[in-house]
């Protein structure tokens, strides 16, 4: 078990692309980097890099990555080694480093899918067809659609200051359809209301 949670030296987006392009599975850049890829430039510092993968494809990803990397399950505030042959049914995040002493290099988000639809784990009624959850840069880098990434940020238990800044920065670039979907998703997850909804509505 590791407890050095802040020991990060994240790889770059091109390095992540090189690693995952060789793996026969679907993946997308997620997190703050996904929003920057949408904007078209790096807009802030990033303390990590997130890769969005499907839970159902974890076995092939584990097999490919463990040839050179060490994988840790991030579950309820603890980090423990992801053992060979272990299927992760509920763990949502995996942290990756070169070895037990090396800094963490990237994080994988394991997400649910059913009948070729992505399922939002915090509110399973929110779904979209898998081909519709990502965009690609001009260089072919796949990344999570900005409205879906903003839902992950706004739908967390604690909205961080950087999440607020990301919303303010990206919202003017979203088309009306993306804004409407984000409002729908936030209302579905938070029927009692959410502080972002009025702000998004005011941007139309």
The CA-CA distance between the termini, in Å, is: 48 Å
Query: How large is the count of helical segments?
Result: 7
Pattern of helices and strands: HEHEHEEEEEEEEHHHH
The Cα radius of gyration reads: 17 Å
Helix content: 25-40%
Assembly annotation: single chain
Shape: globular
Return the average pLDDT rounded to an integer: 97
Q: How would you characterize the largest beta sheet?
A: 8 strands, mixed
Topology:
Elements (H helix, E strand, L loop, with lengths): L12 H9 L5 E4 H9 L10 E5 L3 H8 L4 E6 L2 E4 L11 E5 L6 E11 L2 E3 L7 E3 L4 E3 L5 E3 L1 H9 L6 H10 L5 H14 L5 H7 L3
Parallel strand pairs: 2-6
Antiparallel strand pairs: 1-2, 3-4, 3-5, 5-6, 6-7, 7-8, 9-10
How would you summarize this macromolecular structure in one to three sentences?
By secondary structure, the protein is of the alpha+beta class. The chain is built from seven helices and ten strands.
Describe what you observe in this structure.
The N and C termini lie far apart (48 Å). This protein has 204 residues and is α+β, with helices and mostly antiparallel strands. α4 runs parallel beside α6 (176-189) and α6 (176-189) runs antiparallel to α7. The protein is built from seven helices and ten strands. 31% of the residues are buried. β9 and β10 form a beta hairpin. It is globular. The strands form two sheets. Strands 1, 2, 3, 4, 5, 6, 7 and 8 form an eight-stranded mixed sheet that branches. Helix content is 32%, strand content 23%. The mean pLDDT is 97.
């Amino acid at each position: 078990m590791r407890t050095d949670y802040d020991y990060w030296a994240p790889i770059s987006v091109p390095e992540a692309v090189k690693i995952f392009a060789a793996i026969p599975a679907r993946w997308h850049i997620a997190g703050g980097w996904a929003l920057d890829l949408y904007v078209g430039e790096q807009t802030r510092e990033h303390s990590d890099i997130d890769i969005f993968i499907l839970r159902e494809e974890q076995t092939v990803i584990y097999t490919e990555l463990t040839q050179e990397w060490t994988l840790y399950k991030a579950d309820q505030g603890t980090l423990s080694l992801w053992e060979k042959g272990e299927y992760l049914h509920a763990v949502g995040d995996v942290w990756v480093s070169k070895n037990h002493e090396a800094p963490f290099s990237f994080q994988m988000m394991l997400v649910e899918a059913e009948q070729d639809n992505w399922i939002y784990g915090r509110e399973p009624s929110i779904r979209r067809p898998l081909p519709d959850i990502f965009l690609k840069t001009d260089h072919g880098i796949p990344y999570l659609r900005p409205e879906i990434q903003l839902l992950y940020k706004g739908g967390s238990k604690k909205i961080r200051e950087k999440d607020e800044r990301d919303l303010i920065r990206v919202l003017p670039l979203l088309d009306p359809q993306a804004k409407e979907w984000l409002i729908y998703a936030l209302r579905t997850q938070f029927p009692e209301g959410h502080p972002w909804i009025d702000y998004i509505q005011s941007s139309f």
